[in-house]
Amino acid sequence: MGAYILRRLLLIIPTLLGIMIINFALVQFVPGGPVEQMIAQIQGGGDVFGGFAGGGEDATLSADNENSQYAGARGLPPEFIKELEEQFGLDKPPLERFFNMMWNYMRFDFGESYFRKIDVLDLVLEKMPVSITLGLWSTVIAYLVSIPLGIRKAVHDGSGFDTWTSGIIIVAYAIPAFLFAIMLLVLFAGGSYWQAFPLRGLTSDNFDQLSLVGKALDYLWHIALPVLASTIAAFATLTLLTKNSFLDEIKKHYVMTARAKGLSERKVLYGHVFRNAMLIVIAGFPAVFIGVFFGGSVLIETIFSLDGLGRLGFEAAVGRDYPVMFGTLFLFGLIGLLVGILSDLMYVLVDPRIDFEKREG
């Protein structure tokens, strides 16, 4: 097992390098970089992308400054533009900038945000608790609901209960998380019906003045809708996965042998079937958590105004804050690859009979 883990760890290097190369190359062709952002702020031009639309007076004025590669730089001295490029490190060739960036990232030096003037790692650590809270609660609730429901659906396969719950699950899976989140806001956060839950944030304004129990209740009150919106897709997938896993195990010979010995259905189900059927479900917990953590966090955090990593990444991409963009991409890519290895180790922990080295051989 040690050799397998070592190989997987070594594979992280080329995989992560490939991810960074592709994204860095794509960014070079996207208009509206940090220099344009700064120029737009200085000139009060509003949307930095307005200069790329062309036409009319803008096209005429643009011709007056043909030497500038930046839209909106008209009237600004070239020396000032050069200083901006040096400030953002854009005065160097792309290849040199990429190798410098990767050398720093290998030492976990992610630099400083262009516009927030905060160290990227500190910024990530500041926003991480919100995203971890959302991902962890969503994953735990999905497992607590999906496993019992999937087991019951497997035991009563083909029954009326199985049919109508499958219909609900399919509908739940088909609804996008962001659309479900908006529906929850409209229904329960004062949109058009009931003001049962707060519209945004994780705590109330008077959170510091509440008692310990009051703080816990206030926190749960705020997190209820975002967690429900994040759970919907994972809940559907896990339920069907649990059901199918149990159905496969129930049809095996050792189950029929256990029943022939006179064991009760409950002992057969939970004493023999459960461990084997739950292998793929339990071992997949890290991957499910990461999927919820990264997959739906951008839209959910934006819709519910939660100051987490998803919203941070979205704002960095819109604002062309390259250190935050590439720093979070590197960290998330590394975490995702490490979680893949952790998932394999979970399989071995749940069932020691699994040997990845023999399978590779």
UniProtKB/TrEMBL annotation:
Keyword Plastid among record annotations: no
Membrane topology: Multi-pass membrane protein
Domain ABC transmembrane type-1 stretches: 128-347
SUPFAM superfamilies on file: MetI-like
UniProt-listed GO biological process terms: microcin transport; transmembrane transport
Membrane spanning stretches: 9-30, 130-151, 163-189, 219-242, 277-304, 324-350
Compartments where located: Cell inner membrane; Cell membrane
PROSITE patterns: ABC_TM1
Keywords for the protein's UniProt record, in alphabetical order: Cell inner membrane, Cell membrane, Membrane, Transmembrane, Transmembrane helix, Transport
One of the record's GO cellular component terms: plasma membrane
CDD domains, per the entry: TM_PBP2 (cd06261)
NCBIfam families in the cross-refs: PRK15133.1
Family: Belongs to the binding-protein-dependent transport system permease family.
PANTHER family: INNER MEMBRANE ABC TRANSPORTER, INNER MEMBRANE ABC TRANSPORTER PERMEASE PROTEIN YEJB
Descriptive protein name: Inner membrane ABC transporter permease protein YejB
Gene behind this protein: yejB
